[in-house]
Automatic annotation (TrEMBL):
<dbReference type="GO" id="GO:0008422">
    <property type="term" value="F:beta-glucosidase activity"/>
</dbReference>
<comment type="similarity">
    <text>Belongs to the glycosyl hydrolase 1 family.</text>
</comment>
<dbReference type="InterPro" id="IPR017853">
    <property type="entry name" value="GH"/>
</dbReference>
<dbReference type="GO" id="GO:0016052">
    <property type="term" value="P:carbohydrate catabolic process"/>
</dbReference>
<dbReference type="Pfam" id="PF00232">
    <property type="entry name" value="Glyco_hydro_1"/>
</dbReference>
<protein>
    <submittedName>
        <fullName>6-phospho-beta-glucosidase</fullName>
    </submittedName>
</protein>
<dbReference type="GO" id="GO:0005829">
    <property type="term" value="C:cytosol"/>
</dbReference>
<dbReference type="InterPro" id="IPR001360">
    <property type="entry name" value="Glyco_hydro_1"/>
</dbReference>
Amino acid sequence: MSRPIPKDFILGAATSAWQTEGWSGKKDGQDSYLDEWFKKENFVWHNGEGPDIATNFMVQYQEDIDIMQDIQLTHYRTSINWSRFFTDYEACTVDEDYANHIDQVIDGLVAAGVEPMICLEHYELPKFLSDKYDGWSSKKVVELYVKYAAIVFERYGDRVKNWFTFNEPIVVQTRVYLDALRWPHEQNSKRWMLWNFHKTLATAKVIKLFREKGYEGRVGCILNPEMVYPRSSSKEDQAAAHYYDLFYNRVFFDPMVLGTYSPEFMQLCIENDIYFDPTEEELALIKQYTVDFLGVNQYYPKRIKAQRFAWAEDQPFHPTKYYEEFDLPGRQMNKSRGWEIYPQIMYDMAMYLTENYPDLTWLVAENGMGQENEQQFKNADNIIQDDYRIEFISQHLSQLLRAVDDGARCEGYMLWAFTDCVSPMNAFKNRYGLVEIDLDDHRKRVKKKSADWYRTLITDRVLDI
């Protein structure tokens, strides 16, 4: 079976600054939250690999751009590392060495015919702001972030037309303050929701700035909603899935796209003592300055069933008060990553967005296949034969294109990732790239089989499955 790919449908790839750059040229005091976590808990990162070297993109970025040009990649998404952009975060003193590096990367991409799509914060909150203001707990950090965005837009807005305020804005505080899985392991559900709100508020403020300055282009955010499937048709399982959707998906979708939080959501926050006390002025700002578009990251489904046990009211609130996770028997698994493989999430998420947010323009900002020990799949020419990745992309992209045929306003697909890169704790354990990063040979770049296949997809505009 063959599916035509619309001519203007984006076929790109993504990474982030902190997951690729390495610390070459980084100055004292420029640690991000991720850098500090790596220094504090190096032992939890696979084989001790982390952001200190990463893919050494700071030095070797042109090699990556050359490969992008070779495979005729049309779009590349990455981030600017807020923690490295300044030498003084309150005075907003730009580190010209780092800012010039961003200039060189953007200029190199444009020269190669690759459109840069830039995220302002991909988990790169400066440690200084975490220490002094408790990070996104503080409206002071919101204001400093807007000042940062203003400088970035002024400097690079002539060449960058697609901006994102955050990548997966729910993740850091969920891992730290809700689930207490990551350093500094502080359980604080109210702070979790406050961070959610302040990132939404920051997004609205940045959009306001962008529009008032009259820049050409658009501003969105990259969310990581999970397509929620109830275990059964029972009203209890259906309600459990609804609550999950409220707390993890609509917590950002509704205010960023519709400009409002649902009354049900607000009431749940009040009842569970996680209300974030917005002012009328803040809610009005969120109402007026909704996103121009969204990036949507998709990897696996979320299966939910009704909670079987009474909630212990003396423990901190967690949304699992309303649901339990459910493992579908016989599901297909990515055994390296421990995630279910279910390509239909692409179609179902597209239809969810079409039904609930019909005026929204969006693209898949991440989707990809992580594989452990990829070296075992090398051929005689030392090229990784990652047919499993080709199959994964093909199945998911096919479902996405089916949704486009059925009216979804999806304008593209961005593969995670362009090169192998560091992930939190996972480090380089599972590889996601079209391009191998050889850790034993000075971060040498080697195209995998999937890289040439992706090039054919881009040039021929036909998906064979």
